[in-house]
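G., the chain you wanted modeled:
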Amino acid sequence: MSYKKLFLLCFIAVMSSVAVAAAPALLDLAYRPLAGKAPVNLNKAYGGKVLLVVNTASKCGFTPQYEGLEALNKRFQAQGFSVLGFPSNDFRGQEPGDEKQIQEFCTLTYGVKFPMFEKVHVLGSEATPLYQRLTAATGVAPGWNFHKYLIARDGRVVAQFPSKIKPDDPALIAAIERELKAPAAR
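Predicted structure as tokens:
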């Protein structure tokens, strides 16, 4: 084997390990469950799963998507999938309640059982680190409430879907199914 080929193989191996090692950093953050006290490290709790991260709001035209998000979570949960909701008041004050009010609304109105986390900012310099990383990974910040980011089992952001894409949209479901079938890199 020539030195050139050996160097190329070593370079590819190093770059592959760097990419895999860097991916979990996206989720290596802790957030409190909605109205909870103890933060949860997302990588420890959800690493190795396919995730749909969604910024939510209770007084938005897209709020009925909670029902579809819960249906997605229930449909694919046993295969290693989870929806993670992050309430945000960044868009025209459409999430004005405190965390207890948000939790009651989601549970009583839409039967939400998927994990919901503390109220966060998703835009600009005030954006929480998770949303800064999601925006950097895709080049797309949420344009409104219910923007969706799909994260593969290895922690890479593999797709993003604007608010108007409903949870039962065939393209979103196909992307989730594709990621659930992909082998885990962990």
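DSSP finds six helices and six strands in the chain.

Shout if anything looks off.
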